[in-house]
Model the fold of this input.
Amino acid sequence: MAEKKKDIRQIDQENQEKWEKQKFDTQLIRAGEDPYPETSHSIRTPIYATKSYTYSSLSELIKNRYFYSRTENPTLFALEKKLATLHGGEKAISLASGMAAVHLACSSVLQKRIERLRPNRIKNFFPQTNPDKIPNIIIHTNQYIGSYRLFTRIYPQMGIETKRINMCDLSEVKKAINSQTKLIFLETPANPTLNILDIQECANLIHEVGGKCIVDNTWASPALQHPLELGADLVVESLTKYINGHGDCLGGAIIGPKNEILNIRYFWLETQGPVLSPFNAWLILRGVRTLGIRMTQHSSIAMKIAQFLEKHPKITKVTYPGLESHPNHELAKKQMSDFGGMIGFELKSEEASKKFIEILKLIKIGVSLGDTTSLVINSSFMILDLAKWERESMNISNSYFRFSAGLEDPDDLIDDLSQALAQL
Done:
């Protein structure tokens, strides 16, 4: 008698159980890809460049997982399985960019789906009708500028109040939360100031009022930090940065509980459409396989450079979580396994800063991060479009630099920094 063919969902469950038992570095290589039912004889997941999928009957279509590539694609499926496994989450969804991930994750928490309501009842959902019940979100004073614009420019137009506070101070967090607080959004380490925020304590506080905690984990990646294990409800990643690691494509992801991810996939992704291309998913799969060894090397190089900068007389301030001088050093040790590849530092004057960045030779000027190539940018450049009071509220001086340590030899990077500083 022929053996009964296993259902695709049963195969998924068996594979997931196998991957969850593996160590992190093995998961980087195997999770989502070995075994992979659709490509059982290929050592690498292929690029499925298709828009839709056909079946011999309607019943066959219903039993399968793929319908239309806006929501399902085999190449993306492999990446999502891998990311969910690496983070210890039930499900993941990949998207076109990190900002798409931030927006859809927050939207899934903030917005109610109004269905089958009579027109005269819909108005009860508008905050303008009941100003005492305007929903609010809490963000940190210093935040990636793209997220900042979303929270302070777009969401208020949707009837959502955004509260910016110093989230390093947990008493400020506790004071800001009320019965209408729907979510608390943490970016840790924060961009560009490298503040370290307490995920576990912030999650505990927001859960007391039934709200959700979303963590942007881009600067740490799952190689260094696991927010879901610390109480976060959803994690967002810019796959563009460390997870891909090679500076050649854009991508984003949300990781969390099954039902929440399914809602994002079949409502928010369906309606807003920020779909990751199969080619980019394939590039990110290639990159993530070396995430563990890359993050170890990024962290090692960044520590050596941070120690050099801290001792240099022309540097007035160095911010790196691995240094004992960092105000959140102990918290970083508690919730991160290493300190990452990002450094902040300041020079004595704006004039010196303008000269310094022009005379670097090996280190490149660039606005992104997490690449194999070392990149530096004056952080004030990224917030030029903000009002003066907004820039001042972020406490980012015109002589502050964000430095992304690449994978070059640290001695070569230090030599380049030394020659530039010597000319100031």
In short: The radius of gyration is 23 Å. The first helix runs from residue 8 to 20. The first strand starts at residue 91 and ends at 95.
